[in-house]
């Protein structure tokens, strides 16, 4: 969930070919091979009568004592981030969900990758959106072993549809570099291409949104998916997203501040969910348990599993504050307000540079979650 590498210098040159013994997966027909019909239509909200309005996460929030753990780009502390191997490992480690990032290739294939360019984590070069999947990106491999290909969106959905993973959620971090109408149209095409998607997939998917320009396309094209604002800035969440999103995915350090305590209470009073990222430290995991947030997003779902067992065994003992609980925030500069506010300011500058100003007119949006009829 952390921000892109803004200092990288994207290129558009040809990619280098991997020296990998892993076979290239056979290409199968992609549900996202062409543009969605939504691209050429005026965005209009569907008639309410077409859906049963229900928030599929309400029941999960009621009486929930222990936060869930969503694997950050899978189990990225152990396997290359945003790969099938990482996603599978997160599920095996007992993660309640997977957090991943999404981009569109030049031939309209949805791929799961964090940066807009390839070079930080793979042997490829250049921008993803300027290169096709077929014949080019399908051959890219991760620098980190075991060397893995870039997965398509359909491949993580297939992991979720495995019998052992039917309770695993998917948090889709919608990168600001994407055109929201095109992105959500392609997501819709892929998701609705699966038999029984209404009950087997839709209730487990979440849209993570960084920029207000994604709000109207999200609630119009994918009205059956909850919207979580992703941010480092609590004032930004209040101003642009609070009455338009069902939850918030927030940098842990911001939540740990005095304003973070106020924000947590505001969300609690309004029934908003909170995810904290990226939480890898054991004491920070326990703090999330004390706060009662919806979920922790972590590179280490295996470590959270241990913490969860401690809480289930003896909640009071597991979450009892220690000396470290009070000392830790003073020992690391990342907890000081000027540090995370600087990061928030830099992130906002990047988001507005890539996606335009946040100050756009957004009409009133219903917070009802549309559940398509399964009949």
Automatic annotation (TrEMBL):
GO terms for biological process: lipid metabolic process. It comes from Kwoniella bestiolae CBS 10118. GO terms for molecular function: phosphoric diester hydrolase activity. Residues 1-43 are annotated as: Disordered. Gene3D superfamilies: Phosphatidylinositol (PI) phosphodiesterase. InterPro entries: GP_PDE_dom (IPR030395), PLC-like_Pdiesterase_TIM-brl (IPR017946). This is Glycerophosphodiesterase. Residues 67-308 form the GP-PDE domain.
């Amino acid at each position: 969930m952390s921000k892109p590498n803004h200092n990288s210098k994207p290129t558009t040159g040809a990619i280098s070919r991997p020296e990998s013994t892993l076979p290239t997966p056979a290409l199968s027909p992609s549900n996202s091979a062409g543009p969605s019909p939504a691209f050429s239509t005026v965005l209009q909200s569907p008639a309410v009568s077409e859906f049963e309005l229900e928030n599929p996460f309400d029941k999960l929030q009621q009486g929930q004592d222990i936060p869930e753990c969503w694997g950050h780009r899978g189990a990225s502390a152990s396997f290359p981030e945003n790969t099938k191997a990482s996603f599978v490992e997160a599920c095996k480690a007992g993660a309640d969900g997977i957090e991943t990032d999404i981009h569109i290739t030049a031939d309209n294939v949805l791929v799961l990758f964090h940066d807009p360019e390839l070079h930080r984590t793979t042997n490829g070069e250049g921008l993803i959106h300027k290169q096709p999947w077929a014949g080019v990106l399908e051959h890219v491999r991760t620098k980190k072993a075991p060397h893995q290909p870039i997965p398509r969106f359909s491949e993580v959905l297939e992991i979720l549809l495995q019998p052992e993973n039917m309770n695993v959620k998917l948090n889709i971090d919608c990168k600001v570099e994407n055109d929201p109408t095109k992105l959500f149209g392609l997501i819709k095409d892929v998701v609705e291409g699966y038999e029984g998607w209404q009950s087997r997939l839709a209730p487990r998917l979440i849209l993570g949104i960084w920029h207000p320009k994604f709000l109207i396309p999200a609630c119009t094209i994918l009205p059956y998916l909850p919207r979580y604002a992703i941010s480092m800035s609590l004032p930004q969440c209040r101003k642009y997203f609070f009455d338009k999103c069902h939850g918030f995915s927030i940098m842990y350090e911001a939540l740990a501040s005095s304003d973070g305590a106020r924000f947590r209470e505001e969300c609690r009073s309004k029934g908003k969910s909170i995810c904290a990222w990226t939480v890898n430290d054991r004491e920070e995991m326990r703090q999330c348990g004390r706060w009662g947030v919806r979920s922790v997003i972590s590179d280490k779902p295996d470590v959270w599993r241990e913490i969860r067992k401690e809480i289930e065994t003896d909640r009071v003992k597991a979450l009892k504050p220690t000396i470290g609980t009070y000392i830790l925030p003073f020992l690391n500069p990342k907890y000081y307000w000027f540090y995370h506010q600087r990061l928030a300011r830099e992130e906002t500058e990047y988001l507005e540079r890539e996606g335009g100003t946040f100050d756009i007119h957004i009409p009133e949006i219903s917070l009802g979650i549309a559940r398509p009829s399964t009949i």
